[in-house]
C-alpha cells in the first residue's frame, strides 16, 4: 500500500489515501490543542458529530526536541493512535523555526544561542536604529540544518508508527512565514547578501520560465532580462535586487522570498527524505486594493496589509510564488496554500490553482456561516483537496452543516471532471444598498447553461450556497444539485431552441445501509414552479406575511434534476 500521495487524474488532482481518492473535510485546531491527548479526548467525538474527517494540528519543535538531540514523541504517538481509533485523518503543522513570521516555537537551546542562530534585525523608526526580533535569520544555514534534522526525525517517527495506516495524510512545513515589522532583514549577514545581488541561477529560471504567475508578471515581468543575455554569464555577475524587482520594499520582499523559501525548502526536503508525504506551506496574504477585502464590520488591519512588513515580507504570496517554486517545489513542497479569511475568496482560489499542478488547499479560513458558504466554490469549482476553518474545537456547527452534505455526495464530487461541476454562494442581503457578491452564477455544461439564483421567497431572500454536478458525460442534461437557499434553471444553447424546462426532479436522501443516494420524493408543482426552476429552499424561508406556505423549509438539500429542450422550427 502506498503512503498518502497526490495523483493527477482526469477529475483533477486528488489526495490518495490507501490508494483511494479521498475528500478531506477538515478543520484546524487551536494552536495548542494537539499537544494534549487528554484535551483531545473530548474533541474527537465532537468533530465526528460535525462530519469533520480531518484535523489540522501543530507539532512544535520545542516539544519534540527540548534538549538538542533528545526527542520525545510520546504525546504525538498517542494523538495518532487516538485519531486512528476515531477514524479521523491528521494534517500535521510543523511549527519549527517560523510561526507567523517569528520563532517562538523554537526550543530554548536555539533561542538562547544567538551566535549559532543569529536573529533578524529590523529598522525601528521610533528608536532611530536597529533592533533584534525573535526570528531566526533565514540566512542562518545552521538554523536551517537544525530545523531540518528535527523535522526529518519527526517524519521518521511518523513513518514508523503510521506508514501502514495512513492516518497522517499531509504535513505543513512552518506557518505563515515572512518578516513582520520591516521589509527586509537588516542583520550584517543579510546586508552582505543583499549587496551581492540576485543569484544568476534564479534570474535564468525566471527569465526562461514560460508560465510565470500572472501576479508576478503584473509586478516584475517587464524587468526581467532577456534569457539569452544570461546564458554565458558567470554566477558572479551582478544584478541588483532593485534593478530586477524595483527599488525599496519590492526588492526587499523578493530578497526575503528567496532566502525564506530556500530555508523552508531545506527543511521540507529533509522531511521528504524520511517519509514522502504531501507537503505544503501556508500564506499570510497581502492585499493590493483594500476595496477587494470583505471587511464589513471589521477593522482594516485584520485583512493583512498592502506593504511588505505589515504582511509578512517574503511569504509565498502569489506575486513572489515563482521565487518560492524555484527554491522549494516540487522536490520539497508539493504546493503552496492560502490562509483565506477576508480576501476575495474566488480570486484567491484562482491564484492558488496557478499553475495547474498546484492543487487548492485552504489550511485556514473563517469558521462562521460566511466562511462555510464559500467552501462550495473551493470544492466544486476549484477541486480543493480540503478547506479548513480555524478553531473548530471550540465551534464547528456552521461548517458541520455544509460538511454533512459534502460527505453525503463526496463520491460524485471526486468522480466528476472540473468541467462538470460548479460551486456558488449567496451572502446575507444588506439592510440597505446593493449586495456585494454575485446574485447570479452561470456556467455552460455542453449545450445547456445552468443558472443559479437565490431561492424564491415572498419575504426577504436568505443566504445560501451549494454545488451543481453534471451527471453522465458532458452532453448530459441531468445534474446533481446540493445545498440550500438557491434555485436552478436552465437555458438551451443549441440553435433553434424555443423552450427549456425541467423534465424530472427527484429529492434524494442517503440510504443508511448502503450509503447511496435514493429517491425520497418526486418534486413538481410548487417545488419546481411548475417546471420553470427547481427550488432548493433555506432552512427557514421568509414568507413575508404571505398566508400560503408555498416554499417549504429545506429537507435533505440534495436533488437530481433533468432539463430538456424543445426545437419547434419557427
How would you summarize what this structure contains?
The protein is α/β, with parallel strands linked by helices and 570 residues long.
What features would you highlight for this structure?
six-stranded antiparallel beta sheet, 570 residues, 2 domains, eight-stranded parallel beta sheet, TIM Barrel, Chondroitinase Ac, Chain A, domain 3, 16 helices
Question: Could you characterize the architecture of this molecule?
Answer:
The chain has 570 residues and is α/β, with parallel strands linked by helices. The chain folds into two domains: 5-103 and 140-179 and 255-415, TIM Barrel (Alpha-Beta Barrel); 422-566, Chondroitinase Ac, Chain A, domain 3 (Sandwich). Helix content is 27%, strand content 26%. The chain is built from 16 helices and 23 strands. It has helices spanning 37-40, 43-49, 61-64, 74-85, 108-111, 141-162, 188-196, 200-208, 214-220, 241-245, 249-274, 321-328, 345-351, 369-381, 397-408, 410-414, and strands at 5-9, 12-17, 20-22, 26-28, 54-60, 89-99, 119-124, 129-136, 168-175, 279-284, 335-340, 361-365, 386-389, 421-426, 440-445, 448-454, 464-470, 478-484, 486-492, 499-510, 517-522, 534-536, 558-566. An eight-stranded parallel beta sheet has the order 4-5-6-9-10-11-12-13. Strand 11, helix 13 (345-351) and strand 12 form a beta-alpha-beta unit. Helix 6 (141-162) packs parallel to helix 11 (249-274) and helix 11 (249-274) packs parallel to helix 12. It is globular.
Amino acid at each position: 500500500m502506498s503512503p498518502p500521495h497526490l495523483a493527477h487524474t482526469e477529475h483533477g488532482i486528488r489526495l490518495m489515501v490507501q490508494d483511494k481518492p479521498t475528500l478531506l473535510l477538515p478543520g484546524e485546531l487551536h494552536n495548542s490543542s494537539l499537544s494534549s491527548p487528554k484535551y483531545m479526548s473530548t474533541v474527537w467525538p465532537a468533530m465526528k458529530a460535525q462530519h469533520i474527517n480531518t484535523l489540522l494540528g501543530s507539532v512544535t519543535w520545542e516539544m519534540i526536541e527540548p534538549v538538542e538531540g533528545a526527542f520525545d514523541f510520546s504525546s504525538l504517538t498517542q494523538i495518532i493512535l487516538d485519531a486512528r481509533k476515531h477514524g479521523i485523518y491528521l494534517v500535521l503543522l510543523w511549527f519549527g523555526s517560523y510561526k507567523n513570521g517569528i520563532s517562538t516555537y523554537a526550543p530554548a537551546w536555539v533561542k538562547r544561542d544567538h551566535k549559532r542562530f543569529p536573529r533578524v534585525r529590523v529598522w525601528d523608526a521610533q528608536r532611530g536604529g536597529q533592533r533584534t526580533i525573535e526570528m531566526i535569520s533565514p540566512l542562518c544555514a545552521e538554523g536551517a540544518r537544525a530545523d531540518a534534522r528535527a523535522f526529518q526525525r519527526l517524519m521518521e517517527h511518523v513513518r514508523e508508527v503510521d506508514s501502514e495506516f495512513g492516518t497522517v495524510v499531509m504535513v505543513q512545513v512552518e506557518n505563515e512565514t515572512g518578516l513582520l515589522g520591516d521589509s527586509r532583514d537588516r542583520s550584517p549577514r543579510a546586508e552582505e547578501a543583499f549587496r551581492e545581488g540576485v543569484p544568476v541561477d534564479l534570474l535564468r529560471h525566471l527569465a526562461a520560465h514560460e508560465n510565470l504567475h500572472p501576479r508576478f508578471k503584473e509586478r516584475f515581468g517587464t524587468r526581467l532580462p532577456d534569457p539569452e543575455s544570461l546564458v554565458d554569464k558567470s554566477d558572479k555577475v551582478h544584478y541588483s535586487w532593485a534593478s530586477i524587482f524595483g527599488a525599496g520594499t519590492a526588492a526587499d520582499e523578493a530578497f526575503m522570498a528567496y532566502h525564506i523559501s530556500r530555508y523552508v525548502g531545506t527543511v521540507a526536503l529533509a522531511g521528504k527524505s524520511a517519509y514522502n508525504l504531501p507537503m505544503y506551506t501556508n500564506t499570510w496574504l497581502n492585499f493590493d486594493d483594500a476595496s477587494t477585502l470583505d471587511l464589513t464590520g471589521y477593522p482594516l488591519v485584520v485583512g493583512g496589509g498592502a506593504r511588505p512588513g505589515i504582511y509578512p515580507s517574503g511569504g509565498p504570496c502569489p506575486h513572489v510564488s515563482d521565487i518560492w517554486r524555484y527554491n522549494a517545489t516540487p522536490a520539497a513542497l508539493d504546493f503552496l496554500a492560502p490562509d483565506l479569511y477576508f480576501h476575495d475568496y474566488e480570486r484567491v482560489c484562482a491564484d492558488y490553482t496557478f499553475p495547474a499542478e498546484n492543487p487548492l488547499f485552504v489550511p485556514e479560513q473563517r469558521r462562521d456561516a460566511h466562511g462555510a458558504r464559500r467552501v462550495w466554490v473551493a470544492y466544486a469549482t476549484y477541486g480543493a483537496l480540503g478547506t479548513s476553518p480555524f478553531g473548530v474545537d471550540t465551534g464547528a456547527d456552521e461548517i458541520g452543516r455544509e460538511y454533512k452534505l459534502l460527505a453525503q455526495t463526496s463520491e460524485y464530487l471526486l468522480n466528476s471532471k472540473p468541467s462538470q461541476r460548479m460551486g456558488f454562494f449567496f451572502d446575507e442581503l444588506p439592510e440597505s444598498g446593493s449586495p456585494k457578491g454575485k446574485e447570479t452564477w452561470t456556467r455552460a455544461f455542453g449545450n445547456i447553461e445552468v443558472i443559479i439564483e437565490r431561492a424564491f421567497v415572498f419575504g426577504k431572500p436568505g443566504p445560501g450556497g451549494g454545488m451543481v454536478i453534471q451527471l453522465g458525460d458532458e452532453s448530459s442534461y441531468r445534474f446533481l444539485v446540493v445545498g440550500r437557499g438557491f434555485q436552478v434553471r436552465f437555458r438551451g444553447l443549441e440553435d433553434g431552441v424555443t423552450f427549456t424546462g425541467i423534465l424530472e426532479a427527484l429529492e434524494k436522501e442517503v440510504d443508511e445501509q448502503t450509503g447511496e443516494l435514493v429517491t425520497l420524493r418526486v418534486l413538481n408543482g410548487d417545488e419546481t414552479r411548475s417546471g420553470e426552476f427547481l427550488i432548493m429552499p433555506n432552512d427557514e424561508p421568509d414568507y413575508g406575511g404571505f398566508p400560503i406556505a408555498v416554499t417549504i423549509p429545506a429537507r435533505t438539500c440534495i436533488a437530481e434534476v433533468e432539463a430538456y429542450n424543445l426545437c419547434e422550427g419557427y
